[in-house]
Design goal:
The protein is an alpha/beta fold. The chain has 2 domains: about 1-35, no CATH class; about 35-210, Carbonic anhydrase (Beta-carbonic Anhydrase, Chain A), CATH 3.40.1050.10. The protein is built from 9 helices and 6 strands, in the order H-H-E-H-E-H-E-H-H-H-H-H-E-E-E. A 6-stranded mixed sheet has the order 2-1-3-4-5-6, with helices on one face. The protein is globular.
Length: about 210
């Protein structure tokens, strides 16, 4: 007998199949041999922040990479296992996406782990991973010291998006795509409490609400 949660997922799959596989001209009849997404979203693994749900995107519209704290490591071609870097390369070089979005969010557990490692239950893998955002932590602490109106964790969530954008530019194929074909990089922050999206403005170095 299937566990209740697995049964619920299978019910969801049946509904998915009815919606996207019905008829000869179904969505997946067109997608079965090719994908052509225009946007790469690098988001957090957090269960509340699914890019496809947030954007109401359909199958084939988004190429999505998710990890703890929506981090992009700096380019480091040392032959190691670079899952995030490989996915970015595939999206930019092979799929020729037009836009790359770093999608951060409020109440991020990964950022909390970065700020308060002593309170983190998880072991060494998590702590090693979130060290990618150490520059963001440093900047956030400096900002908080001069203005305590914004919580440190929110400042760090914002700054981590900036760090990932900076790291993206360290990949030669990303820099080339920006220069030669106008690849666009965006930093977006989802405020879970307010249900709002904010965009990073590179000129003002601040996050402002996105009208919708």
């Amino acid at each position: 007998m299937l566990k209740k949660e697995i049964a619920r997922l299978l019910t969801g799959f049946r509904q998915f199949k009815e919606k996207f596989y019905a008829g000869e001209d179904s969505v997946y009849s067109k997608l079965q041999n090719v994908q052509n997404p225009k946007t790469l979203i690098i988001g957090c693994s957090d269960s509340r922040v699914d890019p496809a749900i947030l954007s109401s995107a359909g199958p084939g519209e988004l190429f999505v990479v998710r990890n703890v704290a929506n981090l992009v490591p700096p380019c480091d071609p040392d032959g190691g296992r670079h899952g995030v870097s490989a996915a970015i390369e595939f999206a930019v070089v092979n799929l020729q996406v037009e836009t790359v979005i770093i999608l951060g969010h409020s109440q991020c557990g990964g950022i909390r782990a970065l700020l308060n490692p002593e309170n983190t239950i998880a072991g060494g893998f998590l702590q090693q991973w979130v060290k990618i955002a150490e520059p963001a932590k440093t900047r956030a602490i400096a900002l908080a010291s001069s203005d305590d109106s914004v919580p440190l964790w929110r400042l760090c969530e914002h700054e981590s998006i900036r760090t990932s954008l900076e790291n993206l530019k360290s990949f030669p194929f990303v820099a080339e795509a920006i220069e030669k074909r106008g690849l666009t990089l965006l930093g977006v922050y989802f405020d879970i409490e307010k249900g709002e999206l904010l965009e990073f403005n590179e000129k003002t170095e601040s996050f402002t609400p996105i009208p919708y």
